[in-house]
Amino acid sequence: YFSGFPLWLNIQVTKWQLDDANKELIAPYGESVYQSSLSLEDTDGNVVDLSTFGGKPLFINFWQSWCVPCLAEFESLSDLQNQMPNVEFIFITTEERAVFNQFVNKAGHELSFYRLLSKVPPPLQYKVVPTSLLLNEDGGVVYRHYGAANWVSQSSILTLEKALYE
Fold first, then answer.
1. Interval 12-51: pLDDT, tens
2. What's the CA gap between 132 and 35, in Å, rounded?
3. Are 27 and 123 spatial neighbours (Cβ–Cβ below 8 Å)?
4. Between the CA atoms of 83, 31, 122 and 24, what dihedral angle is there, to the nearest 10 degrees?
5. Which residue from 14, 21, 134, 154 puts its CA 20 to 30 A from 83's CA?
6. What contacts 121, CB < 8 A, 6 or more positions away?
7. What is the DSSP letter of 24?
């Protein structure tokens, strides 16, 4: 009866500890990431390439279903997505199809989840989850954040907007 309660409680406690995401502005990385080959599989099993998102800003979040900080930030990322309608959001995991499908079916989030099917190009490489990146419309990485964050704080939103538009 209480099998999911410890995880839920851990997620709730982690949410309270999230800091603002306002420290990782970077100069745009050389060539466009949209020129890189990066294959993704959506929740319906369709394979898409990163170039599909070219021409518009893109927020990428690398996550895993076992990662409590990843799960804790999904709600604020969903809210951020609503507050930044001109930015595309994708959520990428490396998990096996069965684990991915089980998570997505239970998640209850209206997020664009994908499974990674190829190697990550150098500008998008990460060492920890969650890792979030913001690409400008040209495919340059303009923001990187390692770890979970409170994405809907005023300072977090201002940081992202500054990265995109200044």
1. 666 655 566 655 555 555 678 998 889 999 999 999 999 9
2. 19
3. no
4. -40
5. 14
6. 33, 36, 37, 38
7. -
